[in-house]
Design brief:
This protein has 984 residues and is α+β, with helices and mostly antiparallel strands. The protein contains 35 helices and 38 strands. A hairpin with a 3-residue loop joins strand 6 and strand 7. The protein is globular. The termini are far apart.
Amino acid sequence: MEEKEQKFFDRICSAITTVEAWDADPLLLAECRLMIPFDSLMEGNESVLSQKESLYVREDDFLYSGNALFLKRLALFFQKDVMTWVNNPPCSNCGSKDTECQGIRGPESPAEREGQAGRVEVYSCKACSATTTFPRYNSVRKLLEVRKGRCGEYANLFGLYCRSVGFETRYVSDWTDHVWVEVLVGDEWIMADSCEGTINKPAMYESGWGKKLNYIVGTTCDAVVDVTSRYTRKFQENDFQERRRKITSTEDAGEIAIQRGNQRLRQGLSKARVEELNYRLKRETLILKKKKALSEWTESEKHGRGRISGSLEWKVSREEDGTSQDEETSPPIVRALQVEQFHPAGSVEISIFPKDQRGIIVTGANCDVGQPGCISMVVIDDIHLGCVLLCRSFTSWEDLSKVVTTIPSNRIVVLKGKTKGEEATQSIKKRMSLLGGFELPKNLGDGVMFMGQIEAHPHWATCTTYQNCQYSGFSILFPQKRRTLQKLRTEHETVPQNVATRLPESAMPFQTQLLASEAVKRSAFLTYANNKPSVIGYTTKDSSPVYLLDSTSFPFHEANATDWNTFHFLPEALVPKDDNGVVDDTVNCKFDIPLEEDFFTSLFGKDLIVNSTGAETVLKPVNKALQNSKLVGLYFSGHWCGPCRRFTPLLAEAYSHLRETFPVHGLEIVFVSSDRSSAEFKEYYKTMPWKAVAYDELRLRQQEISKRYSVRGIPALIILDPISGQIVSSNEQSRNDLMRSCQRGDSGIEEMFKSWLKALPEATNELYNILELSCIVDKEEDNKSMSPEGPSNIDYLVRSEEPKFLQDRAQVDAAVKVKELFTKLVEAGEDRNTAAAKAIKLVGNPQQQHQSSYDPGKLTDGTLKKLEESDCVVESKTSIAVVQGLNTSSKGVVETILKTILKYLENTIREPWNPRFRSIKMSNKVVDRATHFEGSVEFIRSFGMDTISTSQDFMITIPVAANLELMKKSLIKASKEVETVTQE
């Protein structure tokens, strides 16, 4: 191993030593847990009605929930109340802060050696000349005692804190001299920097601090991963690659060192654990690979602030003060629902609370997508009562009022929010008068909470401010309404908030569910759900059970890099007519891909060779040769190169299969020759089925193309996005992908192609979505004559024409308006002079026109008159009697549920820092015994447990912030109640 690689591996080994120390002493973990104020960190999180708020509550908390929210507050608590940052230590003799570093030595005293000080900084006091030392301790036990240091000490001790609460935690080493941790939440690794008290801001170092990154490696007690691409958008740039080559001679050499670390860590692990780690690594590699192709941070990702920890002089010396970046920015906080439209079951309860995180709740589903300084609007269907049609957030009442005028009559509208620095204009007030009973407060900063109907003023309509409502909020409850005809809508790559249970054995045996096709699962679900009004849909994927949904399953969210698909009942008008539940990656419509023609012409010249037969050469313009390809590959090769001659047949095999499987919107390859003569080029190209750059053009372009894509040897394969020209898959990744996929046959080749498609830039995928949607719309237009009667999706969500009183506001020539009014007044008996004066005055005063043409007091009572008053949100806990009532044909249901979850809880109490006991797959045979009963999952959640989705399965989890002893007492109490009921 070369010297560079050895240094690289040695640092990996040092990180392994650090993480192994976190788990080495259970007593230390227990001691650390006692120092964490669990209750105060999560105050205000248990109930939307709570007035108590943690000192660590921040405006962006509404973006997080559960374990992620606890991690956010734990990082802030650690930064503010646990550690003390040390620039220069104060003088140990006189206390002066004016000390100067005189040098560094090794550990000498017993305390320094016991604390595993890697080095000791020696300082001299300018006031009294006394010597003060600052040992850089590595012992996490010593750090728990002294709680002082810089980023190394912060990350080391914070890692212990995270492990002590039950988080699976990585120690993240940045080779440009910084360290932090990553924590596993669900199956996503979230960055947490305790020096800054910040989580989930991977752009912070490059975009905010201005660091020139190279290698970033994450290490746990059983895995080492190169996570660099999570923290950079410059991975493909030459400068970035040159910095990496100063650390390792090649990418392969760096990967070999990382694999050596993994081999060391995995010795003695069970086969099941190794398989789990391999699955996890494969999934994360796909995510990181996609990030390598990105070249810019999005506005929401950017972190426009330099480092806050450390002295200014120290930060400047490290070039981490952010001076090279733009001025500090505060990007808008955005929270959006993956699926806006959904229909909870049962009685409809609508609740509003003046809280930022959970402000508008519809039958248990949090529909508030607002943020501080914004207004949330939720529109609910009055025809299919309770169906949520729209959830939006607005930064101004001007924008919101314009949307209000597009909502069909009698729809229920719920508003909550506040703005600052905005004037309540007459036009805003006029538009908002469509909502009977709505009134803007004089001070928009007081906040508004409203519930009512469009063009109606029902007796239950309510409008108040935050101050008048205080923290109690208000709710209304509409009695249960029988659903009309509904249809399943398909939500691709989407998962629900929670699941209720799985499809029972009577509908489809568990093992059959794991093997069944989408169509078979759908048929079994529809048969079962026919007489189950509480079941509102299901979610599943290949080799997974059919998990049922109820009202607690909303809202849905994106299934990042997973294969989950969700199906839920909606009014038929809201379901596309061609939605038959078929899940397919291809779209049954054709559209032209807008090739970046100028870019590829500058790269290859105006023509490409499309085939060669002896002396005859056929040329086609670049745009025709690459037409409708979703991926373009650059293949650098030469006949004289032995490895190239071995690689070319494999690439030809994959290319030919993909051309057959994806004849449109597939992969096209362009051969960039390194042959030494035209004759060699022609001879070699005869073996290739793809396009090529003409040999004469290569004299001008070969060097430039190779330099642009950092091609230093052949064979090389670069995969590009045809729309932007960005790299989708780098040379080493593409070649490795191809070698592995060809070994697995046709299915492996197709999976490789789909993984490359997933790595396309976000903007490209968004454009494809728009084009695909256009195809679907065009197809619907063509089939309009065949469509069933009833409102279209557009008509159902948006009124067909502007309200009449607003049409009166149309900008018409003033003279025409005066003439119209003059005629009406004369016909009413006014003399001509008086009529002319009145007409001119009215046209010049829009407010008087409004008052004369429209009277909000004449609004109807609305379509919904009956309701029940409610003071608070309905309890979500499912009682013992309810569970027993839902499962009358099974004996001992509640006892089985309580016994199963109590077992896992007791394991967690015994080792609260062990994440293995905190998350259990719902398809696990033991857990399935408890969770396949109706009402079982909601019953389990009522004790403080939770359900989360991962790429593999839904999990029953015990949150890291849960009061374990209190949960146990509740379970034991419930067990005794069951015994009492059984005896009776």
